[in-house]
Design a protein that fits this description.
- The protein has 216 residues and is an alpha+beta fold.
- 52% of the residues lie in helices and 16% in strands.
- It has 8 helices and 5 strands.
- Strands 1-2-3 form a 3-stranded antiparallel sheet, with no helix packed on it. A two-stranded antiparallel sheet has the order 4-5.
- A hairpin with a 2-residue loop joins strand 2 and strand 3 (32-41).
- Helix 2 crosses helix 7 and helix 7 (149-178) runs antiparallel to helix 8 (182-210).
Length: 216
């Protein structure tokens, strides 16, 4: 639904199940947009319903949204280097590219009033400034974590836990070195190792909020 609303629907009438996805892309500026997405279904497993938003994002939603971004960015740069419109360089696949082509054709009709746009056969102010040539930062931290309240909070907590565990591990290691009591020394060493392990786990989780999804 023009200009930016996409609805996916699925269902099984015999089983009485239905669901879908509503996705809206809001332009924020040149080469920037914000995506709002809502999944709905009457058959979601309970574990999905109880999953906190930040965990849902790093395990499911971000992976879906990031999947083609590297390809899209490189494709856009190549089209701008060629200096041709999409109609001349696209090889649309009827099974998958209909939505993309129809959206670009819609821009041909109504995009002329916009400050910039890339339609199917026309365009305006595409790749016209030096700032447009700068590489888009392809990492989850800048694209999502910084602007998602749930992921940002979880990221800050994870970072705090990591730093705290490192401090505790160092303190316990110092106790183990300074004490003459064998049992205290063993206990301090064991707890220090556990703190290091927790710090490593926190670091692993932290990378899920920062991950670069540039593919090599």
């Amino acid at each position: 639904m023009a200009p930016n609303l996409i609805l996916y629907k699925f269902g099984n009438e015999q089983q009485g199940k239905f669901g879908g996805t509503a996705l809206y892309s809001i332009p924020l500026g040149k080469n920037r947009c914000r995506i709002l997405i809502r999944n709905y279904s009457n058959s979601f497993p309970k574990k999905i319903k109880l999953m906190p938003p930040w965990l849902d994002h790093i395990l499911i939603r971000n992976k879906i949204l990031e999947g083609d971004l590297q390809l899209v960015v490189e494709q856009k740069a190549q089209i701008e280097r060629l200096g041709q419109n999409l109609k001349e360089v696209y090889l649309p696949l009827k099974t998958s590219d209909t939505l993309v082509v129809e959206y670009r054709k819609w821009l041909d009709k109504f995009g002329s009033s916009l400050p910039f746009y890339q339609g199917y056969s026309t365009s305006k102010n595409v790749g016209s400034s030096e700032s447009d040539q700068k590489l888009i930062t392809l990492d989850r931290f800048s694209q999502h974590t910084l602007i998602c309240s749930s992921c940002n909070r979880a990221y800050q907590v994870t970072n705090t836990v990591k730093q705290s565990c490192i401090g505790v591990a160092i303190a316990l290691a110092a106790v183990a070195i300074l004490t003459d009591d064998f049992r205290i020394r063993i206990g301090a060493i064991s707890l220090s190792i556990a703190a290091v392990a927790m710090s490593a786990m926190a670091q692993t989780l932290k990378t899920h909020f920062e991950r670069s999804y540039t593919r090599h």
